[in-house]
Amino acid sequence: MQLRILFFGVLKELAGRDTDSLILPDDSTLADVLSHYQNNMPQLRNFSASIAMSINQEYAGPEAKLKSGDEIALLPPVSGGSTNHAAITRDPISTQEILNQLKRPEDGATVVFEGIVRNHSRGRRTLYLDYEAYEEMALKQMEGLVEQALAQFEIRDVRMVHRLGRLQIGETSVLIVVASAHRAAAFDACRWLIDTLKRTVPIWKKEYFEDGAVWADGEPFPAELSREVSREVSGTPGTPAGGRASK
Prior knowledge:
By secondary structure, this protein is α+β, with helices and mostly antiparallel strands.
C-alpha cells in the first residue's frame, strides 16, 4: 500500500523534505513507518522519545493499522482557515477587533491572553521567529480544545487565534479571549486553554539569533501520545517518554 508521509519542524530538516511517498506491506502499522525512517535517517532515533504520530489528522499509537492512501504525520515536540471559534492566520492578529466581536451585554468578564514575541531567549538576543504548523490538524485540535473548555468551564464563548510565518519582536503569536458572566471561570478556562494548546497542538517555532537559529525546545506531548512511540521503538514496555516546543 502507498502512504503519504508529512514531516514538520526539525524532522523536516532532518528528512530534507516536507513530504514523502512510502510503500509498505498491507498489514503495516505506524511502528513500521517509524522504523523505516529510523533505518534511513538514524538521527531520527534521537527524537523517538519525544515525537508523536497521526493518521489522517488524528493522533494514533504505533500499533495503529494503516490502509492505502493514509496521510501519516511525524510530529516533533510542539511549540498550539477559520472555524467557529478557532483560526490560523498569517496576518497580524487584531486583539481589540476580536475582543469587540466577542463581548456581549451579559458578560461580566472577558479574559485576554496574548503570546508575544520577546527579544531574548536562551541568553541571546532574538531577531525574529518563524512558526509553522500541520495546519489542518492544528485547526481541528484548537477547535476541539474550545469545545472542551465550553463544556468544562462556566463560560459563554471563546476565540483562539494562532499566527504562522515570520513574526517580529513585539508581535502577537497566539491570542485567546474568553467571555463569561464571572471572572473566575474566564481566568481558569483561559489558563487551561493556553497550557493545553502548548502541549498538544502541532505548531512549532524556530528562533533566530544573531549567531544562528534553533527549533524551540519545550514541554512534552502528553504521556499517552509519546510513551507509546517510545515503548514500541525501545521494545521496553512501560518506558516513559517526553519532550516538546513552547510558545
